[in-house]
């Protein structure tokens, strides 16, 4: 008979994980890269596959830190995937718990040249230029226009801090095609939906710092009425 020690048990477990999960996953990623490469014309891009056996958030935080990652790109999968986002899916956890900007692309999103970017804000918080720099670069590279959208629930005038922050937005986006818009609605998500439809918005950008406002737009349970969740990519900026 053979006596199994803790050390040998751990070795067998690791080997089983590698055989059953890591190796097949690596093959799938390599196949995906092979399919994507012909669609990339620029020689500046390099595609590599990474496999981590860890909790999702821990693994992503590790890679962000070790490789100095600037942007995480993720997809959501239709209405069921969106429902999971709202109640705490992998995507929802990443954009709220990992301190790295994220681009979330819904399954129904169709690629087209970027022309119109919406930036919902209540002007309550100050954002520094470092936080907004990824968005500024996108606007510069695509020549897209940005629409700063202020949603007011009670028609109250802007206070001193809000006025100051609005002026800072004007400075930040001075070299971009920037315009300011105002809507009154009791529900922030309805106002965003109306604006997206009327302006044919291609991308919604937000800063995760304003958690309350951020959650009203991305995390609620009215999936069937809010189509921008399933059609429009989100750029979530972190400080």
List the defining traits of the structure above.
single chain; 239 residues; alpha/beta; Rossmann fold; 2 domains; 7-stranded mixed β-sheet; 9 helices; 7 strands; disordered N terminus
Commentary on this structure:
By secondary structure, the protein is an alpha/beta fold. Strands 1-2-7-6-3-4-5 form a seven-stranded mixed beta sheet, sandwiched between helices. It has helices at 6-36, 56-66, 78-87, 90-97, 129-142, 160-172, 188-199, 211-218, 228-231; strands at 71-76, 101-106, 116-121, 145-152, 177-184, 203-207, 234-237. It has nine helices and seven strands, in the order H-H-E-H-H-E-E-H-E-H-E-H-E-H-H-E. The chain has two domains: 1-53, no CATH class; 116-237, HUPs (Rossmann fold, 3-Layer(aba) Sandwich), CATH 3.40.50.620. The chain is elongated and about 65 Å long. Helix 3 (78-87) crosses helix 4.
How many angstroms separate the termini?
A: 59 Å
Major sheet, described briefly? 7 strands, mixed
Integer-rounded radius of gyration: 21 Å
The total tally of domains equals: 2
Compute the average pLDDT: 81
Please write the string of helix (H) and strand (E) elements. HHEHHEEHEHEHEHHE
Instruction: Provide the CATH superfamily of the largest domain.
Output: HUPs
Count of helical stretches: 9
Looking at CATH, which topology of the largest domain would you report? Rossmann fold
Structure at a glance:
The chain is α/β, with parallel strands linked by helices. 46% of the residues lie in helices and 18% in strands.
Topology:
Elements: H1 6-36, H2 56-66, E1 71-76, H3 78-87, H4 90-97, E2 101-106, E3 116-121, H5 129-142, E4 145-152, H6 160-172, E5 177-184, H7 188-199, E6 203-207, H8 211-218, H9 228-231, E7 234-237
Parallel strand pairs: 1-2, 3-4, 3-6, 4-5, 6-7
Antiparallel strand pairs: 2-7
Helix pairs in contact: 3-4
């Amino acid at each position: 008979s053979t006596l199994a020690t803790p050390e040998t048990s751990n070795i067998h477990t690791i080997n089983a994980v590698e055989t059953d999960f890591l190796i097949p996953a690596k093959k799938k990623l390599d196949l995906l890269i092979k399919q994507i490469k012909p669609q990339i014309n620029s020689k500046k891009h390099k595609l590599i596959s990474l496999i981590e056996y860890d909790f999702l958030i821990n693994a992503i935080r590790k890679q962000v830190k070790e490789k100095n990652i600037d942007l995480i790109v993720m997809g959501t999968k239709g209405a069921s995937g969106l429902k999971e986002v709202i109640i705490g899916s992998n995507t929802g956890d990443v954009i709220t718990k990992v301190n790295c900007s994220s681009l979330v692309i819904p399954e129904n999103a169709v690629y087209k040249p970027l022309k119109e970017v919406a930036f919902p804000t209540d002007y309550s918080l100050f954002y520094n230029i470092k936080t907004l720099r990824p968005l500024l670069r996108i606007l510069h590279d695509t020549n897209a226009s940005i629409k700063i959208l202020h949603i007011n629930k009670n028609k109250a005038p802007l206070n001193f801090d809000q006025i100051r922050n609005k002026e800072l937005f004007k400075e930040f986006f001075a070299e971009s095609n920037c315009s300011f818009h105002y809507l009154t609605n009791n529900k922030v998500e309805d106002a965003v939906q109306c604006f997206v439809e009327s302006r044919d918005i291609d991308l919604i950008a937000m800063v995760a710092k304003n958690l309350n406002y951020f959650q009203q737009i991305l995390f609620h349970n009215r999936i069937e009425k809010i189509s921008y969740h399933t059609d429009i990519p989100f750029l979530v900026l972190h400080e």
